[in-house]
Amino acid sequence: MKAKGSVFKYGDNVDTDVIIPARYLAIQDKKELASHTMEDIDKDFVSKVKAGDIMVAGKNFGCGSSREHAPMVIKESGVSCVIAETFARIFFRNAINIGLPILECPSAAEAIKAGDEVEVDFDTGNITDITTGETFKAQPFPEFMQKIINMNGLVGYINS
Amino acid sequence: MGMTMTQKILADHAGLEKVEAGQLIEAKLDLVLGNDITTPVAINVMEGINKKTVFDKDKIALVMDHFIPNKDIKSAENCKICREFAASHEISNYFDVGKMGIEHALLPESGLTVAGDCIIGADSHTCTYGALGAFSTGVGSTDMAAGMATGKAWFKVPSAIKFVLTGKPGKWISGKDVILHIIGKIGVDGALYRSMEFTGDGIQYLNMDDRFTIANMAIEAGGKNGIFPVDDLAIEYMKAHGSRPYKVYEADEDAVYDEEYVIDLSELKPTVSFPHLPENTKTVDEIGEKIQVQQAVIGSCTNGRISDLRIAAEIIRGKKIADNVRCIVIPATQKIYLKALEEGLIKDFIEAGAIVSTPTCGPCLGGYMGILAAGERCVSTTNRNFVGRMGHIESEIYLASPAVAAASAVAGYITAP
Predict the structure, then answer these.
(1) In terms of domains, do B64 and B100 share one?
(2) Which of A38, A111, B142, B200 pairs with B82 at a CA distance of 20 to 30 A?
(3) Are residue B93 and residue B167 in the same domain, yes or no?
């Protein structure tokens, strides 16, 4: 499986309160909820993001609240993959559980710039910055997590 | 190589003699928790799971606490979904208006969390129950749904950081100063994916409410869980609040820790986290300027317990809240509210010009009951000071202990008693 898109770049410690502020958490409709994605740190995100685009961030991405609404709105807004130096652990779990592809890759997280065209190969963990020609290698997931991802999340895994 | 306290609990719940850091396991759950924000999402997920029944109607706790009493139509609809789900599955631990409290104060108080338990909750502050010697950690709604259906969850066995607490803290130093100090030292990802195991002679000077506060904010250092040894005080607490059998686990003497910190509690000073990260700490005496505040919040799953209210009332009693400050006090549960009423604390707050609310998470996450306008500052006993957490993105939150929040509410600027 591959993903390709242009990059939205963020810094360290992007918390779930800025990914989707709590004032919107009573909203159940995914599309309506996703219309507020990243609103508090990047109000242009929603109008600019296209299907397939990629988020790249620093350390501890998704820290704070356990709200699954955070990976959910990122996925719903069309983002195909989030690459970060590290992820906060609940966000990490939630992303895998709902089938939002994420990759930990410090070198890619540092080098890739906003607006770059990037291609990700999930089978090999290879990340290519098409704009600069640089390539990176992400840590592969343990087999168990790979199984959950391949079954499109935890529900698929349990049902199997 | 021995196991840490967390590893021992996880091994037992996975039916294994031994586990090692990094190992992926499936563990049996003693309790699955959700609130009015995360449960509706979990109920939705459960519809996709082939198994439609819950694993044990007595081992699920649904607490309506975030936007309750309902702040708007959407939050009312969400609670209705939870209420109907609880009724149809005969969930015995469903807590609605009148019985509810802030989940992480309510569950230990109701005897639903005890030492040795393995608990997941669709709320990041589920790590609070580590104060009683349980393994408990926050997860998302899909994990909650899977937990409700199967009674199990997958975990990567964490390694641990050991925090040796020594010495006796000073008069106004509470659990909040301890944990803010630690987060300031190791950073908001300092314990990422790992356990924070607290030990040392200094623990005897921390009451249960202090320990709940410390374990509660393990997540603010990125930790998977925070956990305390089970001493006489913890056993006394569990016996006073319920009848469920508990099991005491102790770390092996040769358990391996990634890092070890020794913290002398007698050296700690009142500590404040500046915007917009809990790691941006300063002691109050390091603040050179007068930071005026327009609001003070005393409450939350971190600091809404009776000891917190007693400390705040002791400082506020007989004084007046500063003219330009709105002081909002929120007892975390109905029992705490009643106790505060019986002890005269509510009267102290009201006479000083503070308001007292029914239990709710409300302002902590910018839900309602104390939202900030642009440019406003709040000193708060809550747990997060992220951008926009309590309202406008140009507002600021200063995290502090009940003592500092109360003293600041009276002074009108951030100060310590």
Answers:
(1) yes
(2) A38
(3) yes
